[in-house]
C-alpha cells in the first residue's frame, strides 16, 4: 500500500457478507419456504409451454436444497434460487402468468397489513406523575386575572409597589407573605414597582404551568433556568418577613441582626425540608414538608415565637448565643477546639474530628482552614439536642460511618466507644465492657442484618438518641444510665402533641439566658444604664444581644453572604 494511504472499509462488501450470513440462517430458510407456500397456494398457476418447462406443479428442489447443503456458491450448476418462479420466465412469452402471480401475492400481503393491532398497554394506564402538581379543571384563570386587574386599578398608574403587594397576593388567592416572592417574581426589584400587564402575564403563565402551591412558590423564587431553590433564593422572601412581620418589628432599626436571623431560618428550612441533602429544594420536597403551612401561619400568628419550626426568634437567639460563646475571636468561624468546649466537652474528640472531616457539611464553602461557620453550627446544635428526627439521625450516622458503606460495623462502634471508656475511667466510673454494651445496643436497635446497623435500623428505633449518646456524648450517656429503659420507652410512647427535644432545650436555654441577663442589668450604684431606643426594644423582648459585642451592619440585601461575614478590628472589642 502506498505510504500515506489510509485503509477504508468497503461498505458493499460488508453488506454482502452480512446478507449471506443472514440468508444462511435456518430461520431465514424456513421463512422463505413459508413465503413460497403462501405465494403458491392461491392459484397454483402453471408455466406455459414456451417457457421450456414441463406442465405441472412447481419444482420443490430449490426449497429442499438449502436445508441439506446450505447456500450454493455462485456459479455452481443446479436448481435456481428459491424465489418466485415468475422471475425465471420470459416476460415476452408469459406476461399474463407473471402478472397474475404477482398481483395475487400483493393481495395477500395487503390483507395481512390490514389486520387490526391489539391496543397498546400504555393506553390503559392513567397519568400519575405530575411534577408541577395535578391540573385542576375548577380553576377559572380569566376570573382570577380579572380580580387582579381590578386590584391594580386602585393603585396609581396601575403599578404596585412592595407595600401594595399584600392586596395583590390576596387577589391571587395566596397567603399574605407570598407578597415578597410575587413582587420579585414579576421583576419589581429592578424598578421598585410592578405594572399590571407584566404581573398578569407572569401570573397567567404560572397558573397554566404550576398547579399547586409548592410549584408556584418554587417558580416565583427560583433562578432562571432552574427548577429548584438554593439557599440564596430565600433571602428576599425572609428579608420581607423581617421588615413587615409585627413580631419582628423591634428589628427594623437593628439591621445588624437581620443577616444572622435570616441565616438561621434558612438553615432550619433546609434542615427540615431538604431531605436529600443536595442543597437544592425541589417541588416534591417542598410539597412533603410543612414549610408552606408555616408561611401561611405568619399572617395569623402575631407572635413569631409561636412558629417554632422555622421562624422563632427565641430559637435564633439561643442558637446564636451558643455560637457566640464558642467563637472567642468573634470572626463567625469556629475550629475543633472551640466546638469541643460545647456543653463542657461532652462530645468526644473523635466525633469532633468527624464533624470537621466534611461528612456533614454538604460540600458548602464552610470549611476554611479547619473551621466551620455559623451556618453549619445551626445544623450541629439542632442535631445534638434532638437526635430523634430523621435529619439528626442521618447527621450522626454519616459521622459514625467511617468507611461510608452505609452501615455501622462493630469495628466502627468500638472505635467510638474506646474513648468513652477512657473518659469514664478518668472520672473514676467503671465502664461497661464493649461486648456487654454492644448487646444492649443491638437489643435496642434490633438490626435486620446481623453484624451491622443500617440507617433504616436506627430510624425504626425509638431510642436512637440513646444509641448515639452511648458512643460519643459522655454527659448524656450518664444521664441515660441513671434512667430505667422502661421510663425512656414511656416517654417515647406518650400520646398527643408533645414538644420535641429541641423545643424543650430551646425553651430551657432561653429562660436561663434571660435570667442571666436580668441578673446583670442593674449597675453597682443602683441606677440602670440609659438605653438607646433600639436597646429598649430589644430589652422589652428579653433579647440580651444588644448588650453583647456585635458586628457592623451587613452588606445590602443582594450581597448577603450566608456563610462568611467579615468584621473589622474595632468590632472585636466590647462596646
The number of helical elements comes to: 27
Work out the oligomeric state of the chains in this entry. Answer: single chain
CATH architecture of the domain at 327-486: Orthogonal Bundle
The 3D shape can be described as: flat
SS elements, strand count: 6
Mean pLDDT equals: 78
Measured between the Cα atoms of the first and last residue, the distance is 90 Å
Find the structural class using helix and strand composition.
Answer: mainly alpha
Classified in CATH, the superfamily of the domain at 327-486 is EF-hand
Main beta-sheet annotation: 2 strands, antiparallel
Helix content: 40-55%
| β-sheet strand percentage | under 5%
Say what the CATH topology of the domain at 327-486 is. Answer: Recoverin, domain 1
- Return the CATH class of the domain at 327-486: Mainly Alpha
**Rg from C-alpha positions?**
39 Å
The strands making up the biggest β-sheet line up spatially as: 1-2
Provide structural commentary:
The protein has 575 residues and is mainly alpha-helical. Among the domains are: 139-209, Recoverin, domain 1 (Orthogonal Bundle), CATH 1.10.238.230; 224-322, Recoverin, domain 1, CATH 1.10.238; 327-486, EF-hand (Recoverin, domain 1), CATH 1.10.238.10. Helices cover 50% and strands 3% of the residues. It is built from 27 helices and 6 strands. It has helices at residues 11-23, 26-40, 61-69, 95-113, 141-152, 165-171, 179-185, 188-191, 196-209, 213-221, 235-244, 258-273, 283-288, 291-300, 313-326, 336-340, 349-355, 374-385, 390-400, 410-426, 434-445, 455-460, 464-472, 474-481, 485-493, 501-519, 533-540; strands at residues 159-160, 194-195, 333-335, 371-373, 407-409, 452-454. It has a two-stranded antiparallel sheet. Helix 12 (258-273) packs across helix 15 (313-326) and helix 15 packs across helix 26 (501-519). The longest helix is centred in the first third of the chain and has 19 residues, at 95-113. The model is unreliable at 45-111 and 522-575 (pLDDT under 50).
